[in-house]
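Private note to self, pasted from the team thread so I don't lose it. Backbone tokens:
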């Protein structure tokens, strides 16, 4: 709601001895603030600023909180440090896997399929990831649901 006050301004540029002109003006003391819900929704869907866009359409997201996993394979244990994840466009098979996942696993499977992670690695990584990194990974993966790249044709 706008509140308007009428103010009187005296312009004193007349020669001495003459009265000044009186001008009335409208001043907005509390300008109306407009909340654009559409703009907010677009901002929420945007990928994080730190994301790196590749020419082939992949998106690499450096993690704010990198994670180290100890992985046993072939009788040997190795350490893998996850400082970033690279996401790819999803396919129909990816969508089928995401849709068939349990409600609790849907977010993890979305990240797993888009980042091309093995299910065992994705589960262990997801369980240790900071929630800020999880949310940003979801934003990147979901960004592929929008239209693809334009070709200029």
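Design output:
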């Amino acid at each position: 709601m706008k509140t308007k006050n009428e103010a009187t301004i005296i312009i004193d540029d007349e020669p001495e001895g003459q009265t000044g002109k009186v001008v009335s003006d409208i001043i907005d003391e509390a300008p109306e603030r407009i909340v654009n819900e559409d703009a907010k929704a677009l901002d929420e869907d945007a990928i994080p600023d730190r994301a790196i866009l590749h020419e082939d359409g992949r998106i690499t997201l450096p993690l704010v909180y990198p994670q180290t996993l100890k992985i046993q394979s072939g009788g040997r244990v190795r350490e893998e440090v996850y400082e970033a994840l690279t996401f790819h466009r999803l396919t129909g098979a990816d969508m089928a896997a995401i849709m068939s996942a349990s409600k609790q696993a849907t977010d993890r499977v979305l990240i797993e399929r888009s980042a091309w992670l093995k299910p065992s690695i994705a589960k262990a990584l997801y369980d240790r990831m900071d929630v800020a990194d999880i949310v940003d990974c979801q934003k990147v993966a979901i960004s592929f649901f929008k239209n693809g790249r334009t070709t200029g044709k």
